[in-house]
Amino acid sequence: MTEQTTNGAAQNEQAQFSLQRIYVRDLSFEAPKSPEIFRQEWAPSVALDLNTRQKALEGDFHEVVLTLSVTVKTGEEVAFIAEVQQAGIFLIKGLDPASMSHTLGAFCPNILFPYARETLDNLVTRGSFPALMLAPVNFDALYAQEMERLQASQAQA
User: Fold this and answer.
1) Is residue 85 part of a domain?
2) Which of 74, 88, 115, 131 could serve as 121's disulfide partner, Cβ 3.0–4.6 Å?
3) Where is the signal peptide, in residue numbers (predicted)?
4) Cα–Cα nearest to 136, from 50, 43, 29
């Protein structure tokens, strides 16, 4: 009986991760030079800005929001500006602080990125522009760079 209780307690302390919901939190599209932009030669330059943020919800639930902001120019003219905030609610418990930070800062955005990319492509094509087809993003590498930057700034302080 004691062994069963001990094993049960150990199982309850194991890490848990569960995706509860994925949704679009915010969506924006602007084509300030249309319809004139469609008559110009299409030579796009793409500027992508990525951002993530997390918020603790009740219990062991967390919201993670991945923001993709894209500005596409052809020459000096802005063809369009598009932004997608793809969000997810995750149940995460039983992780040490370092693992929790990595999960929220890299693992969850990795899950959200394909949804955000698809939403962004759909939005852009509805504006009558070619799909962006964004390349995959290595959120683990971005997270590691951010941790190095934070450690360097703390060492300087």
Assistant:
1) yes
2) 131
3) none
4) 50
CA 16 to chain centre: 21
In a domain, 154, yes or no: no
88 phi, psi to nearest 5 deg? -145, 150
What's the rounded Cα separation, in Å, for the pair 70 and 62?
26
Position 135 in a domain: no
Determine whether 28 is exposed, middle or buried from the number of CB atoms within 10 Å of its CB (0-12, 13-18, 19+). Answer: exposed
Any domain includes 156: no
We report the CATH number of the domain holding residue 93 as 3.10.420.10
pTM: 0.85
Inter-CA distances, 42 with 100, 122, 134, 137, 140, Å: 44, 19, 18, 25, 34
What the block records as the tokens of 26 is 């915010």
Q: Identify which of 123, 137, 118, 124 has the alpha carbon closest to the alpha carbon of residue 44.
A: 124
Domain count, the chain: 1
pLDDT in tens, 98-132: 999 999 999 999 999 999 999 999 999 999 999 99
Strands (E), the chain: 16-30, 44-56, 61-74, 77-93
Nearest to 66 by CA among 50, 42, 55, 49: 50
Q: What is the CA radius of gyration of the chain?
A: 21
